[in-house]
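Customer escalation, tier 2.

The customer says the design service returned an amino acid string that "doesn't look like it belongs to this structure." They asked us to rerun it and document both sides in this ticket. The original structure tokens are below, unchanged.
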């Protein structure tokens, strides 16, 4: 827009620098005036479209007094004074309002003069008396450019103003060391930027513009940034999500199940997906497949069997002790025996004909005999050295010899007429003589040699030799042993004996027993033992019974008789036998006659309260409670009344009041034997974690730690949790405690950058070692001023 003035003659175009300043307090508060310089303004023409617009729109101004300082002497002539009505006009582009006024005066140096108002203001500003001279006053307030009507003016001529160290950010030096700032700046040198509101997590770096710290956004830096975005929650701090009640985790991605999933994973709020082997709303119900038959499922595919049952499904009965000899356990402690066996646990083999001579029935119809007997039922005696020369073994190590023979094994011939002069009986009635000296049936006829031998000399009488000390006989042919050979040993050379069979030693003084003398016996002659009072026989293996075994009994061990088992028994076969044994402590007082104890009756005392196991005779019977173990009481046949801590047919099974779980075995009353690698505790109810859970973690199943997930995690709960997480390479060293690289980052999350040296003059550390300075400062740590000492030259 162009303002046309009256005809005016001007000697020259001069620059006008207009400074508007309030001289008294305004009636109402309004924005501080902003000064604009208008260069090379003609007295007759102003192009207002070239004037800058500002930010704040002001429609009315209160009455004010203004002083106008014209820097250089004005040279202008005004011929006419047209009337103009002040008005304010606001436009959207530049918000320009114009008011034109003409003052008529030809003076060039005027201090102040009053004049009559030429018009009435419609802008709410009272016009004052016009002065001589001519001026166009432009006030930029906010975004409104207003041409004001004439006011009381003072025209003063000045030369140079300077502002040191200068006006910043486009400010103008209004007067000496007085700056007029552009919109958005304030301060003595226009050095401070203005923002309408506080930059919460940032700095006001440009007028009405906040520069946010890392992690913040928004016009006023009050909106945190989470990257990536929170899924089921709100971003309340940089990279920290405040989750909805049904989610947790860094990005609120982890659903929450309450109560928590015991053996599974929370896949959506309050919805558990169970691990293999578990079922139930919170995965706390184990699954056993196939199902437990006689027990309870306590862990996946782990059955806690009822008493008397075992295996993975509790379908196999337990017989304790086990059924022997391939017999079948058909129910707890119930055996069905294989053929040839009987007994509660099929422990006894059956020999229908019995075993003689203390033999043991060790397999069905198979006797294991003592070393002195053999045969299918131990009926044949054993002679360890076979009976010679047609002798017969009639008792253990006892031979009955044929005519003409004697000795333990019939090895010695008998000569009815004894052999004389050293002759030896070599077969029945046959002597072997020393042929050099003797001859005849009994070696009774001497033989004399004509020649003396071995150094002997012919003696004083014919056929008589005088021998040396080592030889003798008539011809000195017989050696001399100074210690005579004993036990029919033969002196075969001087002092050298050849011993007969059954002896040894230098002079054949030691008898030889081929079979060593047993049971304390002493070898006193070849194969002849001198036995103790309890034994007899060649090797002292035949027992002696004293008194003798009665009623046809056979002594089978010292003072132990093998009786005719059809009628007699006892140590010496003095005890009668009842063919069907007297039961329940009854006494057999004669063959097949039982005398029962109190409380029993029947021909065989077969109606007792209880039947003792392994009952043989009165020596085995130990009272009415013989079969009930662990303090149990027999109250009826095969029925025991057990104490509170035992169970089973014979009270042999301990009871654990609190049942053993997780495969634990009740090994004694209220004592569970656990699989110590996985479970322990009084009931084996406590899982074992090895290595153990730490930091308050709970061992929830073998080798599995359940951690306080708000503070710890890891297989042992050894890893601390920081929520919100540590940033910028910080290490979570303890729950919610971040250990930062203190040379670069600090803060609870290591989110605060470290600048060393620190940023000065309100500078902001935006990254390690990087300062964001305010506009008036610069340098790596904002310690270098942007101010310069300068003035405006005209």
């Amino acid at each position: 827009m162009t303002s046309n003035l009256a005809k005016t003659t001007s000697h020259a175009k001069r620059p006008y620098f207009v400074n508007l300043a309030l001289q008294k307090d305004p009636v109402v508060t309004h924005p501080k005036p902003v000064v604009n310089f208008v260069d090379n303004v003609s007295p007759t023409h102003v192009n207002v479209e070239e004037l800058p617009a500002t930010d704040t729109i002001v429609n009315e101004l209160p009455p004010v007094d203004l002083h106008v300082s014209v820097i250089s002497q004005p040279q202008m002539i005004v011929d006419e004074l047209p009337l103009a009505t002040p008005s304010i006009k606001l436009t959207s582009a530049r918000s320009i309002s114009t008011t034109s006024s003409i003052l008529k005066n030809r003076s060039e140096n005027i201090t102040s003069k009053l004049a009559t108002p030429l018009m009435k203001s419609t802008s709410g500003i009272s016009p004052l008396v016009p002065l001589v001279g001519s001026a166009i006053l432009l006030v930029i307030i906010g975004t409104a450019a207003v041409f004001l009507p004439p006011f009381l003016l003072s025209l003063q001529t000045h030369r140079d103003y300077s502002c040191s160290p200068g006006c910043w950010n486009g400010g103008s030096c209004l007067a000496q060391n007085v700056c007029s700032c552009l919109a958005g700046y304030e301060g003595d040198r226009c050095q401070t930027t203005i923002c309408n509101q506080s930059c919460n997590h940032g700095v006001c770096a440009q007028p009405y513009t906040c520069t946010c710290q890392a992690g913040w956004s928004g016009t006023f830096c009050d909106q945190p940034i989470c990257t990536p975005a929170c899924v089921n929650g709100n971003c309340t701090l940089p990279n920290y999500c405040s989750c909805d009640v049904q989610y947790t985790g860094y990005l609120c991605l982890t659903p929450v199940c309450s109560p928590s999933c015991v053996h599974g994973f929370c896949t959506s709020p309050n919805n558990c997906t169970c691990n293999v082997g578990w079922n139930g709303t919170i995965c706390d119900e184990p699954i056993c497949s196939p199902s437990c038959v006689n027990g309870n499922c306590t862990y996946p595919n782990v059955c806690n069997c009822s008493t008397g049952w075992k295996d993975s499904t509790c379908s196999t009965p337990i017989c304790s002790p086990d059924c022997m000899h391939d017999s079948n356990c058909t129910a707890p402690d119930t055996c069905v025996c294989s053929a040839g066996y009987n007994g509660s646990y099929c422990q006894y083999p059956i020999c229908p004909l019995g075993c003689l001579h203390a033999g043991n029935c060790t397999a069905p119809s198979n006797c294991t005999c003592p070393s002195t007997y053999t045969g299918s039922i131990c009926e044949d005696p054993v002679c360890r050295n076979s009976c010679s020369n047609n002798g017969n073994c009639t008792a253990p190590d006892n031979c009955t010899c044929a005519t003409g023979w004697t000795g333990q094994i019939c090895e010695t011939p008998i000569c009815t007429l004894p052999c004389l002069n050293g002759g030896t009986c070599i077969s029945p009635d046959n002597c072997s003589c020393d042929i050099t000296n003797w001859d005849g049936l009994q070696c009774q006829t001497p033989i004399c040699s004509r020649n003396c031998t071995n150094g002997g000399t012919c003696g004083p009488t014919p056929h008589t030799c005088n021998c040396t000390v080592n030889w003798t006989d008539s011809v000195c042919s017989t050696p001399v042993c100074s210690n005579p050979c004993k036990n029919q040993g033969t002196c075969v050379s001087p002092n050298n004996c050849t011993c007969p069979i059954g002896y040894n030693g230098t002079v054949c003084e030691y008898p030889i027993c081929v079979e060593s003398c047993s049971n304390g016996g002493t070898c006193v002659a070849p194969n002849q033992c001198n036995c103790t009072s309890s034994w007899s026989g060649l090797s002292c293996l035949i027992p002696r019974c004293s008194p003798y075994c009665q009623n046809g009994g056979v002594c089978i061990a010292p003072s132990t008789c093998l009786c005719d088992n059809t009628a007699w028994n006892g140590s010496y076969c003095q005890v009668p036998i009842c063919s069907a044994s007297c039961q329940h402590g009854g006494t057999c007082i004669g063959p097949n006659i039982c005398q029962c104890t109190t409380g029993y009756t029947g021909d065989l005392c077969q109606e007792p309260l209880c039947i003792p196991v392994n009952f043989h005779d009165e020596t085995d019977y130990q009272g009415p409670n013989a079969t009930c173990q662990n303090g149990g009481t027999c109250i009826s046949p095969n029925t025991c009344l057990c104490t509170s801590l035992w169970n089973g047919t014979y009270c042999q099974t301990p009871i654990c009041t609190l049942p053993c779980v997780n495969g634990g075995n009740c090994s004694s009353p209220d004592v569970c034997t656990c699989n110590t690698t996985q479970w322990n505790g009084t009931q084996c109810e406590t899982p074992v974690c090895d290595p153990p859970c730490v930091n308050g973690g709970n061992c929830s199943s073998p080798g599995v730690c359940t951690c306080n997930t708000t503070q710890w995690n890891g297989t042992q709960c050894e890893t601390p949790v920081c929520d919100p997480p540590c940033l910028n390479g910080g290490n979570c060293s303890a729950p919610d405690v971040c250990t930062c690289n203190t040379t670069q980052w600090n803060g609870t999350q290591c989110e605060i950058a470290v600048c060393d040296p620190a940023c000065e003059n309100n500078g902001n550390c935006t990254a390690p070692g990087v300062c964001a300075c305010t506009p008036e400062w610069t340098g790596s740590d904002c310690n270098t001023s942007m101010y310069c000492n300068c003035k405006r030259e005209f």
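Tier 2 assessment: The sequence is consistent with the input. Residues 360-406 form a domain with the Laminin fold (CATH 2.10.25.10). Residues 1-159, 612-625, 789-794 have pLDDT under 50 and may be disordered. Sent an explanation to the customer and offered a walkthrough call.
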